[in-house]
Amino acid sequence: MNKKDAPKTDALYVRVDGMYCEHCFNTVRLALKSIDGVDEVSFHNNTAKLTGADLPDSDTIVAAVKDAGYETDASRIGRDRRKITGSVRWYDFLLIAAALILVGVAVNRIFGYNIFNAIPVIDSKMSLGMLFVTGLLTSVHCLGMCGAIGLFASAGSGSSRSIKRPLLYNIGRVISYTVIGGLVGLIGSVFSFSSQAQGVVILIAAVFMLLMSLSMLGLFRLPLPRFFALRLQKGNNDAFLIGLLNGLMPCGPLQAMQLYALSTGSFFSGALSMFLFALGTVPLMLGSGAVIYLTKGKAKIVIGKVASVLILILSVSMLYRGLAAFGLDIKTVLKQPDESGYITATVEDGLQTVSFDLEYDAYADIIVQKNIPVRLTIRADQAKITGCNNEVISNDFGFDVVLQPGDNVIEFVPEKEGEYLYTCWMDMIRNHIRVVDHIKE
Fold it and tell me: By residue range, what is the domain housing residue 178?
């Protein structure tokens, strides 16, 4: 057969919503290739390209995609990829982001409670049973911080639906937490990460979260090494892999537990403590993952949009934390040079004093005068001390204080004018000490 007699190959482009991982892409690929007349299926981001000599009509394509558990419609199918609808709907994105921020602010204002910073205090006095209970309690925090990642891992498709993917994701998490706990326990007190090293880890994780969010929005396809991509196309291994990587997340309770494991000075004790903690987080994380996995169609698309926004917000927050570890605080750059919201020290008899009440998610911004000793008093209510705010650190002024109920006195001498940062031990709470030449009377 010469070229003139060869059957003509046609092409159609189909925008598909709800694909978040290699398993999703492979599921849709198989569903579309099973249609008579479709010879090949390839993807550019979240748009499938169908080629064949006798391509099906739009109704057939829509039915195949929806049967696989994903979403498309006739307006998202065409011969010109640039003209089909289904690009990122920014008004949806902005609406979801605004709603999430409003809910967070409302909860904080009404109840005075920040779920992301209010972490139970984890110390060496905890029993093994309490480690499991701590996991149960902090799983609400995990759901808020990592629930969107759970969606990315748990999102599935097809007519044969089970909890296999969320189960694999949680098994991966437990294994990762346990192994990391053992390694950290083995290291013991011999080695500890500097704040800059922690900042590098946080920045790497932040970039990964940002790429994941943009991938879920359909702006591009999250690249994977070819070895992993080939493995993930064969089944549900991506959920397990994401679970393993989850143990490397710079998460508040996880960091607190890693410090606990570090204090054990034993591989076995460190692994056991992290295993019990991880086990405590499983019921809520597994339950939410199962709900997400069993959700299909438009409901899953809505959940996916919310998750993409949550992951984006998380990545921006982590970028902020990572930069703060290097002394780069965005708020300092953006803040106007006025004194609103700052507490000014009182100077008397060669000593300046300033005090404030500890809050769940904040210390206080203060103004002090240079070259005069400062006595800073943090009044801590037992009910307000959490596993995040219980240790206050300033590299610039050389203090690192573990807060106790009652008055906590911190003394230092500021020698140079400027705006300085002091934080909690996880860099999640950040406030400022402004040093001026002379305090206004």
Answer: 90-328
Is 238 found in the same domain as 146? yes
d(CA 67, CA 62): 9
Q: How far is CA 391 from CA 5, 16, 138, 423, in A?
A: 78, 48, 19, 8
Residue 5 lies in a domain: no
- What is the layout of strands, in order, in the sheet containing 342-344? 342-344, 365-369, 430-436, 418-424, 391-394, 399-402
pLDDT single digits (tens) 299-312: 666 766 776 777 77
Q: Supply the angle between the helices 297-324 and 128-154 in degrees, to the nearest 10.
A: 120
- Structure confidence at residue 332 (pLDDT): 54
pLDDT tens across 161-192, in order? 557 777 888 888 899 989 988 888 887 656 55
pLDDT of residue 377: 95
Dihedrals φ, ψ of 18, to 5°? 100, 5
The pLDDT tens digits of the residues spanning 201-237 come to: 667 767 776 776 776 666 666 555 444 444 444 444 5
CB 61 within 8 A of CB 29: no
CA gap 441, 78 in Å, rounded: 72
In CATH, what number is assigned to the domain containing residue 24? Answer: 3.30.70.100
The pLDDT score that the predictor gives to residue 229 is: 45
pTM (2 d.p.) = 0.55
Of 301, 328, 355, the last residue of a domain is: 328
